[in-house]
Amino acid sequence: MKHSLHLYGTLGPACASKEKIQAMFLAGMTGMRLNLSHSNLDDCEDWLQQYHEVSERMHIIPELLVDLQGPELRIGTLDTPLSLSSGDIVFLISEKSFQEKKENSDIFSRILNGKDEFFIIPCPEILFSYFDEEQEVRLNDGKIVLKISAPLESDIFCAEVIKGGELTSRKSIAIKDLTVPLPVLTKTDKENLKLLRKYHVTGVMLPFVRNADDLITLRKELMADNMDYIRIFAKIESIEGVEHLPSLLPFCDEIVIARGDLGNAIPLPKLPAVQKRISTTCRHAKKPFMVVTQMLASMEENPVPTRAEVTDIFQAVLDGASSLMLTGETAMGAYPEEAMKILSQTSEEALRFKY
Ligand SMILES: Nc1ncnc2c1ncn2[C@@H]1O[C@H](COP(=O)(O)OP(=O)(O)O)[C@@H](O)[C@H]1O
Ligand SMILES: C=C(OP(=O)(O)O)C(=O)O
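Above: the input record for the complex with adenosine-5'-diphosphate. Below: its predicted structure, written as tokens.
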């Protein structure tokens, strides 16, 4: 009996060339994911054309997954990356009034007490009804943490950096322990869904799935355009998603254990147990599942993985994962081909050990 795995890379600036895509296919990649939180399908026409050209030349029928925006909040576009350090002052401004207010230094000087360095982050408007003093705000899957210190105006809040880091455009933003109610699909998601056939998309990933209705809404949208052949991947990345897992299984083709945001929703030491529990539920229900995020995070900067990373890949395969996916390692890392090679070789070893 042949056991095989689906191995995905994320398409991004670091691997968007014919040579890199070919090298990743040769390394064992079976498909790619495009994260539509960073660009639209039409913006990536050239990348996708290259992807399909390479796969055709290599006689590969490639999978192409798109990851929708869904009910996930992200910051807006920054002019330049921000280098945030503990103690820095940050102003969170509604995306709608960002252009107008960012130039008005009088607004900010009220709170700066002579300090002249501060940062401005454009945020989704809806968050301003939820922001409150003392709240913890997590950016980029919790890599950066802010604490809200004071409201300035209804659409401007001041915050202090608690945990610093480099912040670039369109990273995730979440308020600790607070769920903001959002529609399943954004307007942009609906526009992108209309283009799936044009770009030969084979699967759609829905972020932050909360209940079966979210999946039913997506399926109806696909069926309305005669695209019910497209596979639905349900990303589990919130406590609500974990709690509703059994009821989601009939309405999706594959479960995704999205450890980036899931690791934001629960204390990190509890993440491995939650991953194991989701894997077990899927295995018992014979539902394919994917493990994703930080599988080889150190390879964004280094050509060699850590021992812990290869062990994590190996364990995911032993647990029965049907798919593994790289994210930043291939989208923006320095070693996309090498990372795909390690993912493929380590998972092969795990399959050999298992069977
Ligand atoms: N389509 C894209 N266009 C530009 N940059 C991208 C794209 N996809 C990914 N990236 C970059 O690679 C990073 C890692 O990708 P991914 O894990 O999909 O994003 P995120 O963690 O923001 O959800 C992103 O934060 C972004 O900086
Ligand atoms: C893959 C994930 O989603 P995103 O890239 O949107 O953070 C994740 O949260 O693990």
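Notes for the reader.
The pocket of adenosine-5'-diphosphate (ligand 1) is lined by residues 10, 12-13, 34-35, 37-39, 168, 171, 260, 327-328, 331-332 (CB under 6 Å).
The chain has 13 helices and 16 strands.
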